[in-house]
Amino acid sequence: MRLPRLLRTTAVRFALRYALIYVLVLGGALAALMWVEHSHIDDRTRAEIESKLHVLVLAHDNGREAEMIQGLRQLQAGAKRDDRLFLLVTAEGARREGNLIAWPSEQSITLDGRAHLVLIEEEVVPKDLSDSDVFGLAVAWMFADGSRLLLIHRDAEAEQLLEITDYLSEVLGVAGLLALPLSLSLSHTMLRRMDDIGRTAADIAAGDLARRVPVSERNDEFDTLAARLNTMLDRIQQLVRGLREVTDNVAHDLRSPLARLRSQLEVALLEPRDGAEYRETLGHSLDDVDQLIRTFNALLGIAQAEAGSASNGWEPVNLDALAHDVADLYGPLAEEKGQTLDSSDRQQVSILGSRDLLAQALGNLLDNAIKYTPSGGQVGLSVRRIGNSVELATSDTGPGIAAVDRARVLERFVRLDQSRNLPGNGLGLSLVQAVARLHGAELVLADAVPGLVVILRFPLPPGNRAA
Questions:
Q1: Which pTM was predicted?
Q2: Beta strand 148-154 with 340-346: parallel, antiparallel or unpaired?
């Protein structure tokens, strides 16, 4: 038969485990105190009380009972009033002499003349001597006529230890009784919070991506976990939304070039044509194929950057050298459009990253700057170290991007109205943003007055920071 769900929780197991440890530790302390109690009475005290009993028994056996009674009274008078207890009873159990009310019921009192540690109940001790149980070393003897003699050496320190032992025993019992309800209460609280997480996970698995784990006002470790899970779920929902948008945009943006490509090839096959016409058709078809390949390569680059798979092969990248190489590559394109590409504002600085992805991102920025800058305009490229960060920036004197559109142009396949008549697929800045996130950089779009400034702000490695 299976235990109830609450009893099978980890919280109950932990609580019971700690309760068991607590009981064992406290039990060990009790055992140590009991050992101290028993070892407190040394052998000399044992020998002394046994010797006094032997003298009294010898006087009784030799017919000197009055001498024995006198010896008992002297024994009590020669000690403190309450550290010597004794009792002489008849064979019928009637009290003859002593400061005890009656013979104790303690089973460990043996009539063999040997000293034993005993606990005498308070009912047989006069109230003026003690209002609690008495602990001490007892020796007893039975005479030939059936009468019995009991001598007790009371130990106050041992009694104090006994009181502590009794107190700890009570604490031990209460702790054992409270362990289970406390563990059940703790388990119920933990189980309720875990059920909230479980229900949220089930709803998300069923397709409700907007569900989130409830966060209370207690701000405890469960709330910290819930907040981090919600952050993760927000990111997952964002990625899923982006995937859906990509799917829709890919279907929309690829439909036209694929349809145009098919139409061109179909028209070319309708009737015989000369070689020049076939070559022209194939040229247009190749242009459309190149556009498709560029789109897929851009999507692949974005996916690679967002997945972070390239971070395994990271190495120090000299941004000054990278900017120089990319500027040399795009310089002829700027000259062809009658523009000036200025990349002289560069400083020697290195970061840890992927040179290929950084070169691709910088190439996209320069390509956009050259594409949207009119003839006679200027394109700038700079690498500057500012504090504990380095800024890789491009600037142009083109139309720029309005502030309300700057967040939107970073989304995939988004193209503003002024760029509809220019070649492109709307993935350039999306790739730049993905590469920036992968490298822990901040992507900033600002006004160049006129034109646009795009800044990639990278944090410097700890070893390259200013002291």
A1: 0.47
A2: unpaired
